[in-house]
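Hi U.,

Before I forget, here's the chain from the pilot set. I'm dumping it here mostly so it's searchable later in email.
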Amino acid sequence: MKIVTEFPRKIVEFPDMGIVMPDGCRLSARVWMPADAADDPVPAILEHLPYRKRDGTIYRDQLTHPYFAGHGYASIRVDMRGNGDSEGLMDDEYSEQELQDACDVIAWAAAQPWCNGNVGMMGISWGGFNCLQVAAKQPAALKAVISLCSTVDRYADDIHYKGGCLLIENFGWASTMLSYSSRPPDPLLAGDNRWRDLWLTRLENQPFLAPLWLKHQHRDAYWKRGSICEDYPAIHAAVLSIGGWHDGYRNTISHLAANIEAPVKGIVGPWIHKYPHYATPEPRIGFLQEALRWWDRWLKDLDTGVEADPAYRAYVMDSVRPARWHPERPGRWVAESEWPSPNIKTQEVELMAEGNHAIVASPQNCGLAGGEYFPFTFGPELPGDQRPDDALSVCFDQPVLNEAIDIVGAPEVAVRVSADRRQANIAVRLCDVHPDGASELISYGVLNLTHRNSHEFPEALVPGEIVNARVVLDQCAYRVPAGHRLRVAISNSYWPMIWPSPEPVRLELSAATLMLPLRPLAPGDEVVFPAPVGATPWATETVRAANSERHVDRDEKTGMITLSIVDDFGEVRDLEHGLVHGSIARETWAIHPDNPLSALGKTHWTQTLSRNEWSVRTETFGEMRSDAQSFMVSARIEAYDGEKLVFERNFEEKIPRVLL
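Structure:
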């Protein structure tokens, strides 16, 4: 990445600009803007997050926001209420209070003497979600958004449920947020006599969100609120949507490009859950330059040519050897002037003709080669060689390809299937099988078969009765070379991606058809992006180096199989304000191959903050189990001021299992 230090306009920074909400709650913002903005007003760009601007997103903030400011924008990074250095309390993700706060910040920014009245909103993940949801509320000053790694559907395509199946990440992310939001404001900003009171109040009111999310197991009003797919025309702001093939949110770009009526463009690269100017696998792109073109057009009314950009730009990845980490993915950029594209044709492949039969009865540990739902640690989180999972699945291997094919879009598999239980899950993986048998995951999809017709009104299966179902796999762009073959692998478990059915299930397939979206082969890049640049990086001193580990163990005495994860994010000292922060995440996912009710998830997070003689630490613990009737979740927070335990709180709840 090229570092840019000279900009058209001189920058000033405000590390703690207070923005007071109508109810008196003070939000803390870090703001960069041109030094002469009061004399020559500029548009504003808002990023509104719970992830702590002082020590959480500071690495990417330093690369990004000064760049926009130097090109004539007021770039505003706000800590949401109840997080970081802001006052108030948070009770859920994407609450009406959160969205209203964002609307109020937009109105505040537009009214400032240094602003020209136009505002954009951007963000990745949480920030990518809420900028779309805020856009649907149509605040008058909001003219454009850039949404990365986000979703249009909070139920069907987020970290909670997928295909009507309960994602393990539902519990995992609740544990993460419990830890993230347990930290205090910085005493240098909040004040030596005030930070502790704000912290203890925050801890006393801190929610553990897993029970709430588990109380909404179907697509009800809770999930519809904030799902912009419920009303695409509500989006009036121009939308640039960006995602990565190695991220969990790879479908949104297609949905937005195909459905919203406002100006919209989509870009999908080979990346994990990161901004694409520093993401991997490479190649990275000049995200800041692309973003600046977007802002200049919609916030400054300059002709930057973005309206003539292709509707959908995607990186078609070449086949590679399976590995838990890829620093780069060879391939090429393709471009479609409209989306859905008439250039992409669906080829139907009969996997199993009517009248044949195949029994699917996978062990509960099938899925351990699947990788993380949304990788973001630059570590061993990607899908590995699929052969261990293939061996536990029913596989339909296709003939060896005589010539390469480009798969671009969302593959689907239609099945006729019966089950011997009232509830059953099905997982479908599309794999690239190398000549030596190595199996690389291209895409996957899961479906709770009781949701085959509706996520809102599930229908229990009648044991032995054949039903029709369609499993939609995630969007992908992948070249399968000549000499390789496609494999469709079908299982009825996918651990630890989804929580298992309450009973062992036996599926009987009586027909299966693959719908494959094929695009004519691209000989090379059809579009070129500028090289990545960034502003001056964050100045830090490493106290403890980061490290990620994954281990799978089988207890030969009990038969339990355990995936152990340790993500040590390291510890660093900020060389400007001296704050030292560090964190460690530990997860354990265990199951017996023959017993779905043995499924167990445990989490343990440690967060540390210190400066000179001052130090605090929080420890959070979570656990999830289930029986045939209920989900049982528990959690605990411990907070330490120095070495003294100053707060402890336990959560425990049993939620009826209604996930038909």
